[in-house]
Structure formats: structure tokens, C-alpha cells
Amino acid sequence: MNALAETPITADPMVAEQNARDALLQRAQSSSLWIDNVTVSFDGFKALRDLNLLLEPGELRCIIGPNGAGKTTMMDVVTGKTKPDHGQVYMSGMAHELTALSEVEIARRGIGRKFQRPTVFESLTVFENLELACRGRKGALRSLFAKVSPRQAEAINNALVTIGLQELAGLRSGLLSHGQKQWLEIGMLLVQDPKVMLVDEPVAGMTHQEIERTAELLVSLAGERTVVVVEHDMDFVRRIARTVTVLHEGHVLAEGPMDQVQSDPHVIEVYLGGSAHGD
Ligand code: ADP
Ligand code: MG
């Protein structure tokens, strides 16, 4: 076998591209979430440009990037709130293609999203909020008066332990601290048993202690499910990050371990270029 004879073939850019695509497809088969070449434009402005992002099952991925990088738009596409101009979003290997589904259908497939602003019902107790989340927000009033199934009760209790609020289960949620409300919100996602959790800026406005606790919580949630955290508190990201993806102008600028990403000249340039504060 003449190895040299093969070299010109792989040097062909078209072949190299096809090989890269094949390798990506191979990885996608066992991925948890794959954003494949997604472009989103608003009045001609591209908020996402051929975005590619692949997450392994159980991974904890941090997404960082300056204000306007496309982080929120990326989550909007995954959850079905925004439909891309082109590109696909696959879940659980390539079992589901999400861009063809409605927001409700996508949530049912196991994509959970925690928004930045807590949406707990303050007049209800911690337990009642979890109870409601178990059944989804539709028919909230009706489900309040229906009995939870033993399986749901177990899910609620597990969530209470995970978020560390079991002692406060009977407390009206309005009386919780800001951090505790954020944890309750995470618990409300957990009872729905999502396969992929998207968490937008979880530590904004938290005390130092609450940040520590949130770091532990998010790390503990990965493994069983895939967790994607968008955050611009760099100390926090450094603390929890395994793989970090840096978004810039709707595209992946860098990806890898925090140390590597932080010393990447392109990343440094973007972050020192004046818009380092995220949103
Ligand atoms: P990030 O969350 O990283 O700060 P976004 O995803 O919110 O960035 O926004 C990416 C870009 O797309 C920004 O320039 C923003 O102004 C623009 N954008 C986002 N949503 C809309 C919209 N609904 N209409 C017009 N422009 C939008
Ligand atoms: Mg945003």
C-alpha cells in the first residue's frame, strides 16, 4: 500500500470537508443535542450564522460571549420559540429534529429552559409550585386541586432534596430569597425530568454564598442530563466549566477547556474589544 498515493486525495478541500462532515455525523449519532448549521436572521441581520454546536449526553457546557453574540437566540431556536432560516436541531442522537416541532412538542421531548427572571408563583408554597410544574402550566388551577400521583410525589420530593429546599416546602414562595427562588425554578424544571436543561444566567443577582451553592447544584445535575449554562460571570464559569463555547457574532469563536479558551488570542480580542459584559 502506497501511503503517499493517498495523500493528494485527503488534501482535496472537498474531500476534507466531506470527511469532516462524516466525522461530525458520526459524533452526532450519540449526541444529546446537535445544532447543525443554524442561521437565524432578523430583518436581514444574522443573529446566528451557520452555528454548529454538539453536546454529549450528561455534559455540562458553558456558553459565554459578549452582548449580542446570539446566546439567547440559540436557546430560542432549541426551544422552538424562533425558527431558523436554515439548519436543523437534533436531539437524542438524531432521534428528533426539533425545528419542525412546536414549542410544546419540544418541551415534551425533554428540553427544559430556565429563564433569567424567576417565574415562580409567589402566593403559592414551594411544594405547590413544584406540584404545578409537574403537570405543566396549562390548567394550573385545576391541577392544584387534583391529587398528585405517587410518581409525581416522588419527583417533587427528589427535586426538593436536590435544590435543598425540603425544609421550606411549606413556605410561601414570595418569602424566599432571590437565590432560593432561582433554585425553586430549577426544581420546577427537574420535576419534568428534562433530558436537556438550558439555564440562562443562573447567578445574576445572587450572593456569594448562593453562587457557591448554585455551582454545586448545576454540577450535580449534569451526568444524568445535559446541562447548558449561559453565563457571563467568569469566576462562576471557571468554577463549573468543563467545556466552554465562546459565541461571537452568531458563530462559535472558540471551544475547549476554560484555560485554553481564555488564552485564545481571538477570544481575548473579542473580550477586550469593548463589549465584554454580556447582557
Ligand atoms: P445575546 O443573548 O448573546 O446577548 P441575542 O441572541 O439576544 O444575544 O441577540 C443576538 C443579536 O440578534 C443581537 O444583535 C440582537 O440585537 C439581535 N436580535 C435578537 N432578537 C431579535 C429580534 N427579535 N429582532 C431583531 N433583532 C434581534
Ligand atoms: Mg441574552
Fold and architecture overview:
With 279 residues, the protein is an alpha/beta fold. It has a single domain, classed as P-loop containing nucleotide triphosphate hydrolases (Rossmann fold, 3-Layer(aba) Sandwich), CATH 3.40.50.300. Helix content is 43%, strand content 22%. The protein contains twelve helices and ten strands. The protein has helices at residues 3-11, 13-29, 71-79, 103-109, 126-135, 140-145, 150-163, 178-190, 208-221, 234-240, 258-262, 265-272, and strands at residues 33-42, 45-55, 60-64, 86-91, 96-97, 111-114, 196-200, 226-230, 243-248, 251-257. The longest helix is centred in the first third of the chain and has 17 residues, at 13-29. It is globular and about 65 Å long. Mean pLDDT is 89; it is low at 275-279. Bound molecules: adenosine-5'-diphosphate and magnesium ion. Residues 71-72, 279 line the site of magnesium ion.
